[in-house]
Amino acid sequence: MTFTLSPRLIALSLKGIALLSLIGLSGCSSMGIEPWVKPYERQNLADPIMRLNRHPSASMHVAHVLEGRESARGAEGTGGGGCGCN
Amino acid sequence: MVVTNLLNNSVKLFAAICLAFTTLMAQAAVLDPDRADMLYHSYEGGGMTIDGPSVMLRKKASESVAITAYYYMDSISSASVDVISTASPYTEKRHEGQIGVEYLYDKTLMSLNLRQSNEDDYLAQSFSINVSQDTFGDLTNLNLGLSYGDNEIKRNGDDIFEEQSEQYRIRAGINQILTRNLTASLNVEAIADSGYLNNPYRTVRYVDSSIPSGVGYQAEVYPETRNSFAAKLSASYFLPYRAALRCFFTTAILTTVGKSPPAMLK
Fold this sequence. Notes:
The complex is a heterodimer.
Chain A: H1 7-26, H2 56-70
Chain B: H1 2-22, E1 35-45, E2 48-60, E3 65-78, H2 81-86, E4 90-105, E5 108-119, E6 122-135, E7 140-155, E8 158-177, E9 182-195, E10 203-207, E11 215-219, E12 225-239, E13 243-257
């Protein structure tokens, strides 16, 4: 199967991101939704073990290896580029 | 041209959203704590050995400013497919350095990161800017980022050879607290490369009866544009006894488009 990424698709994605961002910025409260997890209920969420990127060095290494070996790149939330494979 | 227009629009969009972020007033967030990381990585397989150290230091200069320094080294000793077929084994070192600054203003976290990766035949320099904002009673975190990279490609044993390539990245993400034990995030990123994207050492072998050996070699011909779009959905769930269950799903689409000289393969 062949995927093509047209500029139109990228433009649509960017517009979608902009729309979502603006909704987020205006706040869901404008739609009658209030934050449902209170600050005093977040002790579990605040625990470092819940962080999605607990070990940034290891995450950057894995992203580098995936990009170098599989051309899988982006959306990892870490820096990248320059695969060192030449 | 289309990609350039698209990137111009992306930069305008990014600037507008950054401006919107800074107009929001909220209670202050906090920076991540100081940390020092050391990592050693090693890989062996397919005739290749790659290993090296990595160090990362992060220090808060004040309650609103933090500085990060990062060093990573790849030491490569290789006999890859290309090397086995057309060349002799080689050893090479890649040094990567990064320095970053984070600035926290109320609930807006802005960061700037500079990066350089240096090999004897490849120099990559890039910068990236990221902005993230807590909103909706701190249940939602939105983040946006933009990167630009410039690469200088050389070929060992050939002093004349010098090529360039560029890379743009734009990314966005949302992190949402769903329950008192569950958080989820969605990240998307679009990457556009342009310029010399070949491996300068890789050649194609073909049958040629006009040469006494009967076999000729020529450089591969690649398109000069490569785009990719990636998305990652991840979730983290707090378990009893201070454990966490994490899962993620990533998908990436990679396309090579743009002008490509006609294939010269015989």
